[in-house]
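Lecture 7 notes: from sequence to structure.
We start with the chain below.
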Amino acid sequence: MNRLIFATFLCALFLGSTLAAAQTTPATGRHVHAIQHFFQDTTLDTEAYGEGVFSFADFDAASAIALGAQASFPVADRFQLGGSLRFMSISPDEGDGQSGLMDPMVSGRYSFDTGTPTQVAAGAALTLPAGSEDIGQGNTDFALFGALRHPTSEKLSVMGRLSLNFDEQGEDRDSSLGLGGGLILAAKPNLHWIGELDFATEGDYGLMSFGVDHLLRSGGHIRGSLGLGLDDGAPDLVLQVGYLKVF
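Predicted structure tokens for the same chain:
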């Protein structure tokens, strides 16, 4: 918990000082998507895009590998729909491993016209109880979220996210508040560094990640990140790689 409080303090201090120096410049990384929260973001695209994703997570008593895809497409001027589907394999330190389909997720978000360089969006996400109970799936979870992205210079943008989560736990439903922030730094026109912090009020969850988004000449994006757990409810280590393509 001390690590979580310390990381939250540093994040708030850095974001506050950055916002205080904000300038009215074009949005850095406007079409570069968040990695931890791919859908709970503000990017407004006129074309559909999809990403194939592979991830590895290491916990205290188990490790997990997931492989799948996520995509989003515009259905109106400022409204986008998206969804994800993944297959997971869990290997505990003791006992037999389990594999199966994770609960599919559908999401929608609306991007507001602020009349400023700041991007603001709000939306909702829902998981469908179609996953395998062998890996703890088969739940109907629901979330409402708001997100913003603000350019502070020609090379740096800050991101913020707030969500209200309702997760199914057996016959009960737990509610929690999610809080996230991040930075997007343009190292080159085709190369962006992405730093993210993510916390939840339930489950002692805190995760910090460092990622990269590299635009290829073909138009695809090679993306990767390293995540470090800040509290007991998060994985100790998360590695993720993906390939994103605009259609």
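Points to note: Residues 220 and 245 are 5 Å apart (CA to CA). Residues 1-28 have pLDDT under 50 and may be disordered.
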